[in-house]
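Before a colleague's protein record goes any further, I have to sign it off. Alongside the sequence sits a line of tokens, each denoting a local backbone shape. I want your independent view on whether this chain really folds as the tokens say. Where you disagree with what is written, explain briefly why. This is what I was given:
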Amino acid sequence: MIEKNYITPQEEFWAGSFGNEYIQRNQSQEYLASNLNFFVKALHQAGKPKSLIEFGANIGMNLRAIKALYPGIDLGGIEINEEAAGELRKVIGSENVFQGSILEYEPVKKYEVALIKGVLIHINPEVLPVIYQKLYDTSGRYILICEYYNPSPVSINYRGHTDRLFKRDFAGEMLEKYTDLSLVDYGFVYRRDPAFPQDDITWFLMQKKD
């Protein structure tokens, strides 16, 4: 692994051994099936998007589902963990993967959909405005945020670690920050869903005004 100096401790956390362990917990066929069901709902109002980039794509379980739903879609992914990025390249091609921190990513082209799922909750709150800006600048039309929701910011223990999981109204903050964004659709998927569970994810699909 390449040694790097990251801006926040959260980046270092996910780039290292904990990020490697996360890979093993999140690659089952059941999870893939749940993602297929999830994105059918979450992207329904987006019609048939031609391109999508995921911020924090890990090994590409979300992108595999999206690729199955929209076979001709142009996909991109940003991933900080070296091992995960290696697996992601097998899914969407090396030329479509940016390996590094989201904070280092500079948008080079616009994608119809900018997606982030289960990542903002692990970002240092102090740099959230930077991430919001990158999502906004990369999106050609839609932004899909899928995270734990809380009406006010809170920090909770994450697998024995402090300051590694934060809940808040991420979508609400973006809607307030960018006045040309409008809420198109939203929903919730419960971890106890008998058929297609997700980890208590609340999702928000936002659209830029034409």
Remarks:
- The mean pLDDT is 90.
